[in-house]
Amino acid sequence: MNMDTFYQVKQILQDNDNIVFFGGAGVSTASGIPDFRSATGLYNRQTGNNYSPEYMLSHTFFMKHPEEFYRYLRNNLYYPDAKPNNAHKALVKLEKMGKLKAIVTQNIDGLHQVAGSGNVIEFHGNSTKFYCMECGKEYPSEYAYETLGVPKCNECGGIVRFDVVLYEEPIDQKVYSRAIEAIGKADVLIVGGTSLVVYPAAGLLQYYKKDKLILINQEATMTDNQGDYILIGDISKILWDLVQELCQGGVG
Ligand SMILES: [Zn+2]
């Protein structure tokens, strides 16, 4: 990693208190949750049938084959032992320091809230929250994951689904507006753990108008040229080190 850039970024974080973080799957890989699109990620795993993972996570598939949908969920999207890593923890510290105003995340694992972050905008929903499609009654994740077949509501018998935006389903308009507002008002935008190829999430970047766009990624990405500062490496280490430097008043 380029240490000059690291210290420039540290200085920016020190000088600003209107920072927004926009994150993707790379934020949670250190917690053992696979990156959907990396070589070892979910989209490259066998699904056990001839369907693509995108199709299995679509609204059509869920409505047509709810049993198979749930089998797929239980095998691939349930990580009851996943714990927040240093990326999540660093962002909690940054919020407590009064610097970080919001986290916009494409992840559905809910680990930012588990870590203790307050203002989290979950763009694609939350895979640990379930609700009845008929009456709206809410259920804990165990109700759906640690059962067999299609989970049904114990009040009305409706199908219980997770609070995640499936393929073909629109992003919640309120969530979209909150994300645009947070990013549009930010003085500093840190984008981490995402290759920015996922629309419409990727389109959110256009709402950031300032000149302190910091990109943190494991590998160089095609969208690096959009960033003002690029840090390549393990995001859980980079964010942690940055926040440690801030806490200590920093050298350099
Ligand atoms: Zn119900």
Structure description:
The protein has 252 residues and is an alpha/beta fold. The protein is built from nine helices and nine strands. The strands form two sheets. The protein has a six-stranded parallel beta sheet, with helices on both faces. A three-stranded antiparallel beta sheet has the order 5-4-6. Helix 5 packs parallel to helix 9. The longest helix is centred in the N-terminal third of the chain and has 13 residues. It binds zinc ion. The site of zinc ion (ZN) has 8 residues, from loops.
In short:
With 252 residues, the protein is of the alpha/beta class.
Keywords summarizing the entry:
252 residues, alpha/beta, Rossmann fold, SIR2/SIRT2 'Small Domain', 2 domains, three-stranded antiparallel beta sheet, 9 helices, 9 strands, 32% helix, binds zinc ion
| SSE topology string | HEHHHHEHEEEHEHEEEH
Number of domains: 2
Helix content: 25-40%
Shape: elongated
Strand content: 15-25%
The largest sheet is: 6 strands, parallel
Placed side by side, the strands forming the largest sheet appear as 3-2-1-7-8-9
> What would CATH call the homologous superfamily of the largest domain?
TPP-binding domain
Distance between the termini: 16 Å
Organism: Mobilisporobacter senegalensis
GO molecular function, one term: zinc ion binding
Catalytic activity: N(6)-acetyl-L-lysyl-[protein] + NAD(+) + H2O = 2''-O-acetyl-ADP-D-ribose + nicotinamide + L-lysyl-[protein]
Family: Belongs to the sirtuin family. Class U subfamily.
What layout of secondary structure does this protein have?
Blueprint (H helix, E strand, L loop, with lengths): L2 H13 L3 E5 L29 H4 L2 H6 L1 H11 L9 H11 L3 E6 L5 H5 L4 E3 L2 E8 L5 E3 H5 L14 E5 L8 H13 L2 E5 L20 E5 L11 E4 L2 H13 L5
Parallel strand pairs: 1-2, 1-7, 2-3, 7-8, 8-9
Antiparallel strand pairs: 4-5, 4-6
Bound molecules: zinc ion (ZN).
The site of zinc ion has 8 residues, from loops.
